[in-house]
Amino acid sequence: MSRPIVWSLAGSDCGGGAGLQADLLTIQDLGGHGCTLVTAITAQNSVAVTAVAPVSLPLLEAQRAALADDLWPAAIKVGLLASDEQLIWLSDWLAELAPGQRPPVIFDPVQVASTGQVMGRLAHCDAMNRLLPLLSLITPNLPELAALTGLPVATPEQIERAATVLQSRGAAAVLVKGGQWGGAEVSGLPANGGAIPMAGGTQAR
Prior knowledge:
The chain has helices at 19-29, 57-70, 84-96, 125-131, 142-149, 156-168; strands at 5-13, 33-44, 49-54, 75-78, 105-107, 137-138, 176-177, 189-191, 194-196, 198-199. Helix 3 (84-96) runs parallel beside helix 4 and helix 5 crosses helix 6. It is α/β, with parallel strands linked by helices. A hairpin with a 4-residue loop joins strand 2 and strand 3. The longest helix is centred in the first third of the chain and has 14 residues, at 57-70. It folds into two domains: 1-138, UDP-N-acetylmuramoyl-L-alanine:D-glutamate ligase (3-Layer(aba) Sandwich), CATH 3.40.1190.20; 141-205, no CATH class. The relative contact order is 0.11.
């Protein structure tokens, strides 16, 4: 296959505006071939999430094994992990791969839908600490950053501190999305001699 293969691990959004459906459109627009590992089936539309049903670990592993046999990824994008068990499963599999075999992994730790409904819960600290060093990039929004670190994120200084804490736990890079923040303009937040950018344009809102 001439196009790079990208795996998306995420929930299925029957409304088509998020999750696997949105990932596939983005991957296609960027010239890739999207493959999906369904972590959860959701019932949602543009205004509400009415149900979330996690996929069983045996079925999730069967999806992974089928793709690994024939469609190895150039990159992996992870969205909703619907249970601690799914997070541990992903950490275990990534840890088994040799560093040269492991593709870049981008984790968007989806916990709250844009409509405000809780989609999943962040896993216990030990499980997340196992996953963080295996990621190339983690992209929390502000509620997710607060949940991951247990720290307030009401000011740029607090956001910088929380992102730095996430880096200290092993994350190679942190991209904080500011869509839930009504504060001042933020273009970048320095940490550990680098920069932790705030995504979402010049106005973080």
